[in-house]
Amino acid sequence: MRDTKAISKMVIAVILIVVIVIAGVIGYYLAVPQGTVKETLLMGTTDSVESCLDPARAYDFFGFEIIQSLGSPLVEYKAGATGLASDIQGALATSWKTSADGKTWTFDLRQGVKFDDGTDFTADSVKYTFDRGIQIADPDGAWVGIGIGDIIESVQVVSTYQVQFNLKIPFAAFLSLLAGQECYIVDPKYAPKAGATWSVNDVILYKDGDPRGSNPMGLGPYTLRNWTRVAGKDTAMSLEANPNYWGKSSGLPKTKTIIINFYTTSSGLALAMQAGDVDIAFRQLATTDINSMKTNTNLKVWESSGPFIQYLCMQQKNAPFNDVKIREAVAAAINRTALVQTVFQGSAKPLYSMIPTGMLGSTNAFQSLGDPNYTKTQELLATLGYNENNKFTFTLWYETSGHYPQSQQQALVLQDSMQKSGVITVNLEGRDWAAYRTARQEEIMPAYILGWYPDYIDPDDYIQPFVSSTGGSWIHHNYASAQMDQLVEQARSTPDATARTNLYTQINNLMVQDVPIIPLYMGDQFAVSKTNVQGIYLDITQNWRNWLVYAQG
Fold this sequence. Notes:
By secondary structure, the chain is an alpha+beta fold. The protein has helices spanning about 5-30, 60-70, 125-135, 140-145, 175-180, 265-275, 285-295, 325-330, 335-340, 375-380, 405-420, 435-440, 465, 480-490, 495-515, and strands at about 40-45, 75, 90, 95-100, 105-110, 150-160, 160-165, 220-230, 235-240, 255-260, 280, 300-315, 350, 390-400, 425-430, 445-450, 515-530, 535, 550.
């Protein structure tokens, strides 16, 4: 008599094997684009790297996005993230745990990972990166802007593939912070230190004719094959698949080569997209061009709401904006509705807090000043001697090179809305981004428009870099308040959501009282591509994931 139990076990084993094989095939087909995939994609943009591709200094959207293609973090937000903690997944770290008080974090690292030059990635690489960023402490970089040195006490190598972070405070957004490009791991070979400790002189800057020596990365899906700049503006750039990338076994990057073409105007970029000269157009296209492309059957418009915001800064170390009444009068004269309807045709939303609508801590605090309230503007300026015959006059600066969307049109609408108060005259001054950034650093602009893309998804990232006495240094608006510093410190070190919400309400109210910055709007995000392009994700992180984008040939 045959052993029916043995036969049953054999049948079950065969079924399991078949299921595993089928699952593997399905997984392969889901992960890897089928058919002929183009080896090269052309992307068009009007953007440019602001300063460099070193996380110790870089603090701009395009610089961060190239760093993201060239490097890797310990953890990352998955594509399509909505901002939930569950959206964070391992990258160079495979697992992690935290202490009960939230001040000690231990990470187990991915093993067998190599930089593009063949150097092994270990816990020493992590410690090197964080010690370096904190010690360099570049006043115009993200490490100071975010205040990472105020969060991290030390980084300790536990073993070859385990590292421990000891925090000064139980920072509620620590995992989200580590997913930011400022925390991407650098290669010690390409990020050396000249002395016993690092300094701002150790920041890796652009080197003409040496793309590899122009960045300290090396763990990402791509390497920098070509990068040329003229007068602080990018003119050519290309990314090549990194053969040592740890995600290579998953079929990444999906496109071997990304060539980035730079355009001086949004209209030039739109024409290139419509003519088929590029496969993708991303940053910045005019709203009218985007709407026109929606009717073009040869193109696909990708769009999503996002956490991008723009705001008005005022230089507070000098007259006239050292007077809070002046700042309050300007804030009361701004018509946000006109701004979003005229410039963006409704694809943006008025913003009355530096924290985007829908995020923990957001309020409508600035609505109390009006939108606009010309009577309030007139009354405030009257106390300082201004009226219809003696108007308050100042110059509003804006950038002209496509770093932000439709900056000149924004400036014109703001000028019009403030001048309708009858007691303000606004002169406009435009500069390309390189000159604009220099003017910001030299603190010669009395009033100027800036924008913000999040470093990490948490309200702290919309407050601390702007109004704390240390974080706000990169803006050069010279606002300082001991009361604000105390509230910001409490908010970022408080884990309880209800308590944090209350603290951000106090912060928003104090911002209305002091008017260090005037929030303007939060904008949607767009990209346009040929119809054969896939793998574009526009989510809350604002991250542009080159390694997921591909096109059927």
